[in-house]
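To the structural biology subgroup,

Please find below the input and predicted structure for Aldehyde-activating protein, which we are adding to the shared reference set this quarter. The sequence is reproduced verbatim from the submission form. If anyone notices a discrepancy with their own records, reply to this email rather than editing the shared folder directly, so we keep one authoritative version.
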Amino acid sequence: MPENRYRGGCQCGAVKYEVEVDIGGAVVCNCSRCKPMGFVLAFAPRDKFKLISGAENLTEYRFNTHQIQHLFCRTCGVQGFAYGETKNGDRIAAVNLNCLEGVDARALNPTAVDGRSA
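Predicted structure (tokenized):
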């Protein structure tokens, strides 16, 4: 597996995915969802994200501008990723680095972003 390719998923194992992502660009956000959920995030082009299993077990939550498709496991409630677009229309996956195998997301020294004011 390439150095920047990871496997991830939810707590119960119903949802699994693989992603090629630069975890060195990790961020934490202070918006009304990310802060209380404790997300440490990195972003990957959608063609570098592959849902392996559990599509039927995902449920969706949208808030604020309803642009981000927050997907979480309906069994255990863990949100391992979300789908969205950049300002120029590129499709991306926002990956919760806490859900990646072999990654200590809190040790990555993520950059703080002000999502609350966006």
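Summary notes: The radius of gyration is 13 Å. The chain has a mean pLDDT of 90.

Regards,
Lab coordination
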